[in-house]
Amino acid sequence: MTTVTEETRLPVGWRVVARKELADHLLSGRFVVLMAVLGIATAAAVFAASGGIRDVAPAAQGISALFLKLFTVTAEPVPFPLIVFVGFLAPLLGIMFGFDSVNGERSQGTLPRLLAQPIHRDQVILGKFVAGLAVVTIMLTALVLFVSGIGIFRLGVVPSPAEVTRLFVWLLLAVVYVGFWQALATLASVVARRASTSALIPVGVWLVLTLFGGFIFSAIAGIIAPRDGSSAAEVAYLQAEQTVSQASPITLFQQGSTVLLDPEVRTIGLVTLEQVDRAIVSELNLVQSLLVVWPQLVVLLAMTAAMFAISYVAFVRQEVRA
Amino acid sequence: MASATSRDDREVRIRTESLTKRYDDRAVVDNLDLEIAAGEVFGLLGPNGAGKTTTILMLLGLVEPTEGSIEVLGMDPRRHPLEVKRHVGFLPDAVGFYDTMTGRQNLRFTARLNGVEGDDETIERLLDEVGLLYAADQPVGEYSRGMKQRLGLADALIKRPGVLILDEPTTAIDPEGVAEILNLIRRLANDDGVTILLSSHLLHQVQAVCDRVAIFVDGVVVAQGRPHELAAAQSGPVRVEFRFEGDEEPARRRLEELDWVVATTPGRVPGSWVVSLESARVPETVKELASTDVSLVGVHRMDDDLDAIYRRYFESREEVEA
Questions:
Q1: ipTM exceeding 0.90?
Q2: A278 near A322, Cβ under 8 Å?
């Protein structure tokens, strides 16, 4: 037998956990289902979009960034552009890979055994988070490559390096956005004992923000900057509304996506007619787009990090016994 | 007395001093002093809810003690959690595994967490020792509870522990399996010098394998020592069942004449009598009966040694409550 004092080199805990979780996810039913949903919906959207672009292509001579239009154009019969679809899907992905991460261990009875191994508790939750996000990254990358492939095939347009870079940054944004929902779902899985409850919490948050978000933000803006009919007050109100709405990760992701994938968008803020008077329609280069979207990126990253930190602390402070 | 001889000068691997855990002022574990040496099998026996699991989780550093000190392998589990967990094997009560993974894969994961990856021979040997080799490549979801418990034992042994903590190791296992498991436990202690702390509410099942036991009721140790010494220290009458063949009337009359016999009552089957008598007088009584001309076909001590102690504490507690 090994003597008690013998030193063993312990592995990096989160990596061992992440490796196991990754294998679990990739072999799981939920991965297959999500991949199928993603594939079908993406194929439909991108076929419609590429068809739409082809129809207008003769009139749209000289449009650069035509390739990115694949992601932003709405075309019949699919009622939404691809970025909106990803915006819808991202919370679902995050929730699916997070909602049972801790209480799943509890209900299987594996938590006491796992925590009795030489691994810090924070490494457990970190490993799970990393693994979930890795799967999501794989899925979203596959989606982007899939769309690009169909686009090249159907349109015969090869993306420029700038477009590829924009897509790459957008992919990062999407992963961070999914990370927010995954962190929220992980928190729910720490707090709620049952998987059904912990799935419902983030889904509820998402529904409220999506369906009633606009209403809630206008109401808050109305309190901060009451409208009295004057145009100055109106501007103040609209600015307040925009600021408040940026508390929602959904808004941040939408704004970020729009700017990154549409080089013609030059601002997300309020623009008066005077400001755009005689402005020449032109495209921003990548750096300029990034400058516009920088605050959104950073705030979203901060929100994701904060949400993860909360679930982390909640888990570390929790009793092992159910 | 008893404990001093059993420990001689072997290294003490588990030591607690006035260990106390309170939840909202209710003491679940109250002033527990334990000292367990290398190669010793120690039984923590008591009814459900006595505080056994809480004690175990405190030894592993998974629950914070309210007061008192703990030393496992010379280390404080709160200050050196990883070192302690690296060398302490733990089989939790109602142990769980990842259902979609096979038994072997589950063990491999634990091995990896302990930095003993790639030790497939050990895994093979352990699976064989707990009698699970035939099911090694089945998903754990198909295992029975008893099989999971066997796997749990293999899982706890993978890190080649110096201390093995088993919480209710025999509850879900059939009687034949219990004997196998207890043999394995005994062998680990004798051959490898592993210190084993096991908790159980099934006294008679585990008392045979324990060098020393502590009877634990409501967070307090009411008796501690070697099983037979504890039983010998018992005062008061014991109950013995005698079975006769043919006419048992003369034997019964003879029994009632003996002045150390307290009471005789009819037994569970015809021809048997349950006799309460002073414990030291059992052999004499048998001799007396042999000298009569009835045929004595069976003598059975109704109180398992520790059961008597156990029951006595329950009875005295009920009296207090009444």
A1: no
A2: no
pTM of the predicted structure, to 2 decimals: 0.82
Asked whether the beta carbons of residue A113 and residue B95 sit closer than 8 angstroms, the reply is: yes
Q: Do A116 and B60 touch (CB under 8 A)?
A: yes
Query: Cβ contact (<8 Å) for B96 and A13?
Result: no
Closest CA to B227 of B35, B38, B32, B45: B45
Burial of A310 (0-12, 13-18, 19+ CB in 10 A): middle
- Could you give the dihedral angle defined by the CA atoms of residues B6, B9, B14 and B17, in that order, rounded to the nearest 10 degrees? 90
Residue of B nearest to A19 (CA): B109
Q: Do A113 and B160 touch (CB under 8 A)?
A: no
Task: Identify the CA nearest to A291 among candidates A266, A312, A262.
Answer: A266
Tokens describing residue B63 = 């629950």
pLDDT, tens only, B129-184: 888 899 999 999 999 888 899 999 999 999 889 999 999 888 878 888 888 888 88
Q: Locate A199 and state its tokens.
A: 């799935």
List of residues 6+ apart from A24 with CB closer than 8 A: A131, B98, B100, B101
Q: What are phi and psi of B44, to 5 degrees?
A: -100, 100
Using CA atoms, how far apart are residues B297 and B255, in angstroms rounded to an integer?
A: 16
Of A1, A20, A118, the CB nearest to B114: A118
CA gap A9, B86 in Å, rounded: 10
Minimal CA separation from A263 to chain B, in Å: 47
**The tokens of B157 are what?**
């042994």
Q: Please state, as a whole number, how many other Cβ atoms lie within 10 Å of the Cβ of residue B236.
A: 10
Peptide bond into A58 cis (omega under 30): no
Cβ within 8 Å of residue B275, ≥6 positions away: B239, B240, B241, B242, B255, B261, B263, B264, B285
User: What is the token pair recorded at A125?
Assistant: 């939750």
Over its length of 322 residues, how does chain A's per-residue pLDDT go in tens digits?
A: 444 444 567 777 888 899 999 998 898 888 899 889 888 888 887 777 777 777 766 655 566 667 777 777 776 666 777 788 888 888 989 999 989 888 888 888 899 999 999 998 889 999 999 999 999 999 999 888 888 888 788 777 778 888 888 889 899 999 999 999 999 999 999 988 888 898 999 999 999 988 888 888 888 888 887 877 787 888 888 888 888 888 888 888 888 888 887 777 766 766 666 666 666 666 777 777 788 788 888 988 999 999 999 999 998 888 777 5
Contact A118 B113 (CB under 8 A): yes
H-type alpha helices, chain A = 13-27, 29-56, 69-72, 82-96, 103-108, 111-115, 121-155, 161-191, 195-207, 213-224, 231-245, 249-261, 273-276, 286-316
Across the interface, of B86, B96, B152, the residue whose CB is closest to A108 is B96
**Residue A145 neighbours by CB under 8 Å, 6+ apart:** none
- Which residues of B lie inside 8 Å of A (Cβ-Cβ)? 13, 53, 57, 60, 62-63, 73, 81-83, 85-88, 90, 92, 94-101, 109-110, 112-117, 152, 155, 159-160, 162, 192-194
Length of chain B: 322
Distance CA B205, CA B60 (A): 25
Window 11-70 of A, Cβ < 8 Å to B: 11, 13, 16-17, 19-20, 24, 27-28
Q: Is A109 part of the contact surface with chain B (CB cutoff 8 Å)?
A: yes
